[in-house]
Design a protein that fits this description.
With about 325 residues, the chain is mainly α. The chain is built from twelve helices and four strands. A hairpin with a 2-residue loop joins strand 3 and strand 4. Helix 9 packs antiparallel against helix 10.
Length: about 325
């Protein structure tokens, strides 16, 4: 009996009583380093309702922030394109006095050439897209104006068939009128409603501007009107060139005054979008802080418990060493 017990002694090792304490030390060390509770259920007292609410709020705010970010990009693109259109109109206005006042037909041709280049620049601005969506076609995949050359050809025909300058201007006005040839033939069909960007709480923001907006259409019309003078069937040299120049300058001035007003309205909407974006950003940060606080730990409490566990671990090691009759060098 004694022999059997002696043979079985190697299989009866000492129980590791310090394992659970070491596990707690590891967990508390992680919590102290990360500032978060290793056991979310314990941190929340098994009540996940508030955490779920905060997570849902964060998801919504992230979506709103992304949507408003796209709206900001859209507004910036509109402003850039309108700036290009405005600069093109200024070139036409600046070319008119000297060109039309010059003797002979060369001045008219010079003004028409400048206007033709301006019309091309305006057409390029109208074809501006973001992620494949045309900003002047309310987000349509197809740009609103397929060809500037076709419009110039149409107006050239009107110029060749006009009896005088006044009839030419009236014909171009009719061409660009609402539901006129320009809108029904040269402008591609697109949704009349502007693209909307969700802004949270069931609201959205949008920019009410497209290729059919009067400010944009008038700027393009003015450039095309002057460009068409190169094909005029009436004699600008024999006519009252001074009166024609006054009409064209007045129309250019009107275009130059209307475009900034449109840009100002877009700017007001951009300011509202920026305010909503900042609010979403602040709300998102607040939700993140609330979640961090909900699952966070008290550093002082964790440090105290970690110190207690370390003391308990040292005590267990001391007891183990005494029971195993280890020398100091073995313990160390």
């Amino acid at each position: 009996m004694t022999l059997a017990a002696g043979l079985s002694l190697p299989f009866h090792t000492m129980r590791d009583t310090a394992s659970s304490t070491r596990d707690r030390v590891d967990i508390l060390s992680q919590e102290l380093a990360s500032g978060r509770s290793a056991d979310t259920s314990r941190a929340l007292s098994s009540d996940f309702s508030e955490l779920s609410h905060l997570s849902h709020r964060m998801h919504n705010l992230q979506s709103v922030r992304e949507s408003l970010g796209q709206a900001k990009t859209w507004g910036d693109a509109l402003q850039t394109s309108l700036e290009t259109i405005g600069q093109a109109g200024q070139r036409v206005a600046q070319a008119l006095p000297a060109s039309l006042a010059a003797a002979g037909n060369d001045g008219v041709q010079q003004a028409a050439a400048t206007a033709r280049g301006a019309a091309e620049d305006i057409g390029a601005a109208l074809r501006h897209t973001i992620a494949g969506r045309a900003i002047f076609a309310n987000g349509s995949e197809t740009p609103p104006l397929a060809s500037v050359a076709d419009v110039l050809d149409d107006v050239g025909l009107l110029a060749r068939g006009a009896a005088d300058f006044d009839s030419y201007v009236n014909a171009v006005d009719s061409y660009f009128a609402s539901a006129g040839t320009f809108e029904t033939t040269r402008v591609t069909g697109f949704d009349a409603a502007p693209i909307r960007f969700p802004a949270g709480e069931g609201q959205s923001v949008s920019f009410a501007v497209d290729a059919k907006s009067s400010e944009v259409r008038d700027a393009f019309k003015q450039a095309v009107l002057v460009a068409g003078l190169s094909d005029a069937g009436f004699d600008m040299r024999a006519g009252d060139r001074g009166a024609a120049m006054m009409v064209l300058q007045e129309r250019s001035a009107q275009v130059g005054a209307n475009l900034p007003l449109l840009q100002g309205r877009i700017g007001v909407q951009e300011a509202r979008i920026a305010t909503r974006y900042d609010a979403a950003e602040t709300g998102l940060q607040d939700a993140e802080v609330a979640i961090s606080e909900a699952v966070g730990v008290d550093p002082f409490d964790v440090a105290t418990r970690l110190q207690d566990e370390m003391s308990r671990l040292e005590t267990l090691y001391a007891i183990t060493a005494r029971q195993a009759q280890l020398r100091l060098t073995d313990y160390l």
